[in-house]
């Protein structure tokens, strides 16, 4: 009897898909075999197993992804229909909370979809993603432009009940209302149709952009022979040999087209022609004039984004994007960046002069070029601070750094990480992914599960990121957290530790900060686990500061061969050189952030992307010896989706908060491990997520707003006169 009812429900859900733009016919929806396939769908299945259920990464099938989305979308639409057809007046519970409760199946499906797109991408995956992009866009447009649903949300927003709700509930209603308005809910029928068409086109272009970048990362690998390894330290050679072996090129050495491989090669290789080749390969991703070139795609994305916000009455995309961010408008974001830019490029000029002097002294007979910057910066570092980056790297073992992060999490958050080794939690790559249970140190209360996928491999997008498979909520009973950290470190040879650079160690701590933000959540409703983009990077940036604290240095930075702790004099050199090369780091980042916001605050009609990038950087007096951190044709943060579009400035906005908050810890009696400060950190900056306005949350922690002077002090830049 139960199976017959389930089949009937499945038929109803599949038939409902016709309403959201999907093709359906009676022969398909009444086919018992077809229905049985849907019932046994591995992607749609509820999660089972320990820890309140975990993703079945070991059994899911890509072939089930599209059918799973079809059923889940139809179910979501049915849930929305139930909300709007409710004869009772709209209330917080029967409308806002009901929306929060809808779409549970979709949340599970997106977990698998995210893994297939980011961690385990294949040509087949990309093809499926290309097919799904317009389908999902149409589906979300149908919800966001549902006038009956919006009217119920508006009724709650304008109701007397709003005054009786708790502050975080009022914030949720307001954000729900404004989100619909910002998605076109108030547009007339014709404009709504065009708005949805634009979203559809953009979804396809974003997917194509990301696929093109990944194709260039996979297709361009520089293979070296033993004779071409000049200057490379053992750790880099070992990682390159391991990478080549994994690609079926045993006996050779592979410099892959990712930052974690490119960066150390450019730092140490004495082969200048090869440095130029690797540099060009990396910075030309998406800009090679071939089938994977992104320039025309970017121009079309910008044109469509501009048209879409004009339908809503905004002058430009940046104005629309920043309206609900901490910056509030592009002028405020530009004001911050413009305050830092002159000091950054002035520092680059000093850095280049130092490097050119070294090159001249060595008789190199060259003028510093972009592919020389890291190489000669390393020589200057050694000369000025007697600091060898590779010497430092010998003390930066990935496993030890992970344990250091666990120590920090215990001291600040009362978290304990225990390895899960019984294979009870499936993973998507058994060779690379490891899993830990997270509990409270004080009372052993279960918090969640943490996944770590640290290594680069074919099909994995570049960079580092954090995500959740399930977030904390309490409105329908408390849920635990499934969090994940993902990186692209080059795995050490078998039997040898994976060694990473100081910069990579900072990134590791940064992304773990995001995971702690997920794990520390104490919000009630799902949407409160979101965040304001120019604020959510703050918490993770702040966690980087604990890398240089004494307990971490003294206990976890030990030599990979001798096991001896890092010497005190080497630590002193690291701290003394803390602001070394800050001109390069700040300028490469700011150039990307300024270009991003400029592109999104102009009329992009007829834009030539290459020309715009080149001419704008020249107007900004961008140093010729370096380039943007993310050149426009591979700027995935901005053009493979809309998460950071017109918002890459947010890292610096958050860095102001970071520098200011770090000074609060430094001034506390117990320093970075002060228990009172740690409690304020968790209570006001981590656990509240998006249930509290970010500005209010920061003031509750610090007692005042953050000051930009802290950032300038941090970077060793002169503080501009007011």
From TrEMBL:
Cofactor, free-text remark: Binds 1 zinc ion.
Cofactor(s) the record lists: Zn(2+)
E.C. number(s) listed in UniProt: 3.4.24.70
Domain Oligopeptidase A N-terminal as annotated: residue spans: 77-191
Signal peptide: 1-23
Coiled-coil region: none
Protein's name according to its UniProt entry: oligopeptidase A
Species per Swiss-Prot/TrEMBL record: Psychrosphaera aquimarina
């Amino acid at each position: 009897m139960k199976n017959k009812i389930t089949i009937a429900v499945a038929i109803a859900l599949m038939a409902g898909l016709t309403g959201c733009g999907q093709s359906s016919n009676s022969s398909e929806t009444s086919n018992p075999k077809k229905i049985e396939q849907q019932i046994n769908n591995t992607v749609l299945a509820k999660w089972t197993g320990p820890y309140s259920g975990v993703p079945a990464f070991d059994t899911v099938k890509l072939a089930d992804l599209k059918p799973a989305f079809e059923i889940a979308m139809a179910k979501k639409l049915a849930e929305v229909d139930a909300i709007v057809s409710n004869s009772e007046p709209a209330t917080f519970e029967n409308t806002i909370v009901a929306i929060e409760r809808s779409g549970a199946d979709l949340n599970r499906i997106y977990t698998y979809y995210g893994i297939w797109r980011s961690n385990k991408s294949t040509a087949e995956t990309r093809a499926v993603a290309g097919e799904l992009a317009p389908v999902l866009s149409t589906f979300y447009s149908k919800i966001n432009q549902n006038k009956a649903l919006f009217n119920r949300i508006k009724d709650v927003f304008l109701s007397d009940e709003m005054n009786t709700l708790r502050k975080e509930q009022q914030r949720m209603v307001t954000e729900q209302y404004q989100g619909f308005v910002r998605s076109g809910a108030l547009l007339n029928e014709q404009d709504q149709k065009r708005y949805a068409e634009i979203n559809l086109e953009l979804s396809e272009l974003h997917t194509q952009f990301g696929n093109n970048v990944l194709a260039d990362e996979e297709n361009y690998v520089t293979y070296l022979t033993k004779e071409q390894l000049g200057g490379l330290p053992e750790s880099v050679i070992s990682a390159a040999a391991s990478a080549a072996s994994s690609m079926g090129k045993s006996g050779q050495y592979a410099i892959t087209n990712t930052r974690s491989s490119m960066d150390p090669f450019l730092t140490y290789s004495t082969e200048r022609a090869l440095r130029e080749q690797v540099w060009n390969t990396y910075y030309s991703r998406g800009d090679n004039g071939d089938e994977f070139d992104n320039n025309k795609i970017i121009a079309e994305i910008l044109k469509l984004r501009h048209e879409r916000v004009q339908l809503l009455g905004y002058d430009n995309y940046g104005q629309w994007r920043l309206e609900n961010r901490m910056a509030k408008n592009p002028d405020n974001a530009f004001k911050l960046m413009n305050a830092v830019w002159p000091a950054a490029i002035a520092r680059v000029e000093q850095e280049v002069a130092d490097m050119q002097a070294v090159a001249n002294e060595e008789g190199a007979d060259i003028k510093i070029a972009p592919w020389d910057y890291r190489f000669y910066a390393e020589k200057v570092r050694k000369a000025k601070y007697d600091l060898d980056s590779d010497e430092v790297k010998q003390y930066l073992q990935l496993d030890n750094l992970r344990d250091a992060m666990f120590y920090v999490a215990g001291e600040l958050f009362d978290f304990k990480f225990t390895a899960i080794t019984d294979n009870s939690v499936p993973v998507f790559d058994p060779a690379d992914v490891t899993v830990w249970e997270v509990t409270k140190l004080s009372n052993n209360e279960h918090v969640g599960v943490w996944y770590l996928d640290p290594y680069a491999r074919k099909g994995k997008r570049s960079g580092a990121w954090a995500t959740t498979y399930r977030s904390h909520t309490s409105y329908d009973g408390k849920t635990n957290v499934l969090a994940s950290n993902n990186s692209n470190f080059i795995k050490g040879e078998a039997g040898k530790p994976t060694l990473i650079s100081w910069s990579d160690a900072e990134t590791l701590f940064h992304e773990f900060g995001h995971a702690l933000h997920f794990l520390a959540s104490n919000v009630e409703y799902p949407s409160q686990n979101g965040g304001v983009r120019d604020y959510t990077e703050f918490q993770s940036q702040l966690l980087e500061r604990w890398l240089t604290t004494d307990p971490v240095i003294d206990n976890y930075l030990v030599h990979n061969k001798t096991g001896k702790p890092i010497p005190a004099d080497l630590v002193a050199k690291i701290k003394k050189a803390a602001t070394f090369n800050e001109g390069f780091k700040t300028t490469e980042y700011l150039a990307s952030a300024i270009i991003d916001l400029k592109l999104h605050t102009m009329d992009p009609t007829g834009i030539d992307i290459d020309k715009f990038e080149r001419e704008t950087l020249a107007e900004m007096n961008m140093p010729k010896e370096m380039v943007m951190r993310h050149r426009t044709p591979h700027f995935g943060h901005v053009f493979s989706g809309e998460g950071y579009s017109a918002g890459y400035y947010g890292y610096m906005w958050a860095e102001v908060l970071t520098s200011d908050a770090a000074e609060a810890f430094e001034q506390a009696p117990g320093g970075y491990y002060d228990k009172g400060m740690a409690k304020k950190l968790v209570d006001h900056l981590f656990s509240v997520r998006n249930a509290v306005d970010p500005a209010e949350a920061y003031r509750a922690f610090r007692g005042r707003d953050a000051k930009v002077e802290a950032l300038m002090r941090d970077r060793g830049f002169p503080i501009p006169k007011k």
